[in-house]
Design goal:
This protein has 21 helices and 16 strands. It is of the alpha/beta class and 701 residues long. Helix 15 packs parallel to helix 16 and helix 17 runs parallel beside helix 18. The structure holds N-(4-aminobutyl)acetamide and zinc ion (ZN). N-(4-aminobutyl)acetamide binds next to loops.
């Protein structure tokens, strides 16, 4: 009976939107870049093979992704463009290799740490530069919103006057300089998620405050290549560039999805939002992914969908992803596909693995946060009193487990390992990929008032109120006496059902009684069979559903202390009143809400707003943007019907039609910073993604 009722309601009230992303995703690829190859035997360089490019592109074709992208042809970067970063001498050496024989090529290659020349290397490297700049132009001109360039040779190790680590010209660094000159950009963020430190990029921008460079990298207390002391967390930049170089060293191998996500929550994203870039460039190496012989990390391909999704919330969506490393062909190509799918606006797959960062990762977060405290407002109130002298790197933090397989042992098992991971990934991708609902967003409009992007729909009077009553009376019988309430609940359930049945990805219901609607929605989703429903409730809650069985997790954001209801693992109250001048909610979302949400791993997210909400449009938009990667992007908005502007803004965000503006960044006051810290301390044993410092461990040991 309920089902038929809902169906009936949905036919009448529910209308559905399918608007494509405003501007699309560029893909830059040129097969010629596969001609650069190693001509002699060299165990250091033999992993950088042409198949890295061709297998990535083949996989994109296999998933039908290529045809969904805007093809952008590569071109050769000009000498002038290369000279934006490199010395004339370096350019001349590179140019001179075009006519060399193998013996000469080998000799020149030997002048560098881990590089090989082929007669067509110079041409490929110029194509790599030009491909990157074409991508940048496509994004900056508004032809597309974002995009990826598949290039070889990679760039981030390359320095003003030297090739290094398979890199000849620094594609991403050239792009940043080019963007400064051509588009007068003043704030560019480079995110280097390659597993190696892009020391070339660090050197180039060390003194430049207009380029914020973030790199995480396998470090192992300086034992891992390129084994530089300046790859550690205390290299923060030089001169005017102090604070604009962020190094997050990984001191153990085996870092996984939760470590990478926690690094974004507790290190990169707060700085990135405070920096407020006009453009984001990704030095996109996938050697940080599972199976890679260089990285020895454990992150699975879908983590790159999440990372990409987060970066898409910056710089009004202007995001250019440029390939760097990645040497396990299957891991590389699946991860590339995850990245481009996300750029296209597809729902983000569920992240797998236990959501708890490792102790070693948390040590690194703590160190880099302490090192950057002088330069970033969001860290102003960071408690670093417990730290030993930062310049003498604590012995406590030194490698505890001297148990690495020897190089030889590793090489023997290497091939088995590659095949093992291939098989694992074959299964894994089948498990996490799911059919994208043909329609992105469902919504209703109880008033029939025109929306910016929606067609007005009027309520049909002949709704069978008794049927809706029967449905909701199972929940809160006394609240459904009014017809108006009843109708809005019927509407809400119609949209929710479309989401639960996976006919649409997300949805929005406006309601005169959003608090009741929210509560009914939670109950209904659980009854439908959803095991973990995350609810962010903004405003006064009239009904707090029972959360004891863990099937619902409520984070309640309200103005004043709720009387009677104390926080528990599954009901968390966050008293937060928005700042009048701008948005100071970043620290709460990144440092608290997001880590809890990822620890919980919901299969549905409900965001309910009103009445008396203590956040404005900017803060609420931030919630939608950052929580949108959870629950396969299954997100349901229930909003008080009088909030016209908010409804329009959320609708656009759900459709992916625009990146909402989050307002001027305001750092948290001491009081608010303390509030977050206290809550983190209170909940970090239960919701482990909250962990960003290890002082407890240190004092305990
Ligand atoms: C781009 C990149 C790695 C060089 C490793 C040399 N380079 N041992 O991943
Ligand atoms: Zn690398």
């Amino acid at each position: 009976m309920f089902a038929s009722c809902l169906k009936w309601v949905s036919w009448n009230f529910c209308f559905v939107l399918s608007v494509a992303m405003a501007s699309g995703t560029a893909l830059v690829y040129d097969e010629e870049m596969t001609t650069h190859k190693l001509l002699w035997s060299d165990p250091v360089c033999d992993i950088e093979v042409p198949e890295r490019l061709s297998s990535s592109y083949e996989r994109l074709k296999y998933y039908g992704i290529v045809e969904r992208c805007v093809p952008v042809p590569a071109r050769e970067g000009s000498e002038e463009e290369i000279l934006l970063v490199h010395s004339p001498e370096h350019l001349e050496v590179a140019k001179s290799t075009q006519t060399m024989n193998e013996e000469e090529l080998k000799r020149v290659s030997g002048n560098y740490d881990a590089f090989f020349f082929h007669p067509n290397t110079y041409r490929c490297a110029r194509l790599a530069v030009g491909a990157t700049l074409e991508l940048l132009d496509a994004v900056m001109s508004g032809k597309v919103c974002n995009g990826m360039a598949l290039v070889r040779p990679p760039g981030h190790h390359s320095q003003r006057n030297a090739a290094n680590g398979f890199c000849l010209f620094n594609n991403v660094a050239i792009a940043a300089e080019y963007a400064k000159v051509k588009y007068h950009l003043q704030r560019i963020l480079i995110v280097d998620w390659d597993v190696h430190h892009g020391q070339g990029t660090q050197y180039i921008f060390a003194e430049d405050p207009s380029v914020l460079y973030f790199s995480w990298h396998r470090y192992e207390h300086q034992e891992f290549w390129p084994s530089l002391k300046e790859s550690d967390y205390d290299a923060v930049g030089l001169g005017k560039g102090k604070g604009f170089n962020i190094n997050l060293p990984w001191n153990k191998v085996g870092m996984g999805n939760s470590d990478y996500l926690a690094a974004f929550f507790h290190v990169l994203l707060p700085m990135a939002f405070e920096f407020d870039p006009e453009l984001v460039l990704v030095s996109s190496g996938y050697d940080s992914g599972i199976g890679d012989p260089e990285g020895q990390m454990n992150a699975t391909p879908e983590v790159f969908a999440h990372l990409t999704h987060f970066l898409m919330q910056l710089a009004n969506g202007k995001l250019c992803v440029i390939l760097e490393g990645g040497y396990h062909l299957k891991s590389l190509s699946e991860s590339v596909c995850m990245t481009v799918k996300t750029l296209l606006g597809d729902p983000v797959p569920h992240i797998t693995g236990e959501m708890a960062p490792s102790l070693s990762a948390v040590e690194s977060f703590q160190n880099v946060r302490a090192a950057h405290k002088p330069y970033w407002k969001w860290l102003m109130h960071e408690d670093t009193s417990f730290l030993q002298n930062l310049s003498t790197k604590s012995l406590l933090l030194k490698k505890a487990n001297p148990n690495p397989a020897t190089e030889d042992e590793f090489k023997i098992t290497n091939n088995d390992e590659v095949v093992k991971v291939e098989r694992f990934l074959e299964m894994h991708m089948k498990n996490i990929l799911f059919p994208v609902p043909p329609i992105k967003t469902a919504t209703t409009d109880s008033k029939g008032s025109p929306h910016l992007l929606t067609v007005p729909v009027h309520l049909v009077k002949e709704v069978d109120q008794n049927e809706i009553k029967a449905l909701v009376s199972g929940f809160y019988a006394d609240l459904v006496k009014e017809d108006k309430v009843l109708l809005s609940l019927g509407n809400m359930l119609a949209v929710l059902d479309k989401i639960l049945r996976k006919e649409v990805c997300n949805g929005l219901a406006e309601s005169p009684v959003s608090s009741i609607s929210g509560a009914v929605a939670l109950k209904h989703a659980v009854q439908f069979g959803f095991q973990r429903v995350l609810c962010i409730f903004v405003g006064d809650m009239q009904i707090v559903p029972n959360t004891e069985d863990g099937k619902i997790l409520i984070i309640h954001i309200c103005d004043k202390e709720q009387s009677g209801k104390t926080s528990s693992k599954h009901y968390i109250s966050l008293n937060w009143k928005e700042d009048a001048e701008g948005n100071d909610f970043f620290s709460a979302v990144l440092g608290f809400i997001l880590p809890i949400a990822y620890s919980y791993q919901p299969n549905l997210t409900v965001i309910a707003v009103g009445p008396n909400q203590s956040l404005g449009i900017s803060g609420i938009s931030l919630l939608f943007a950052l929580l949108g990667g959870l629950a396969e992007s299954r997100i349901f908005a229930v909003i008080k019907d009088t909030e016209r502007n908010l409804i329009q803004s959320v609708e656009k965000a759900l459709l992916g039609a625009s990146t909402p503006h989050f307002g001027i960044y305001v750092p948290p006051t001491q009081e608010k910073a303390n509030k977050i810290k206290t809550l983190r301390d209170q909940f970090q044993q239960e919701w482990r993604m909250l962990q960003c410092s290890v002082k407890d461990e240190i004092s305990r040991n």
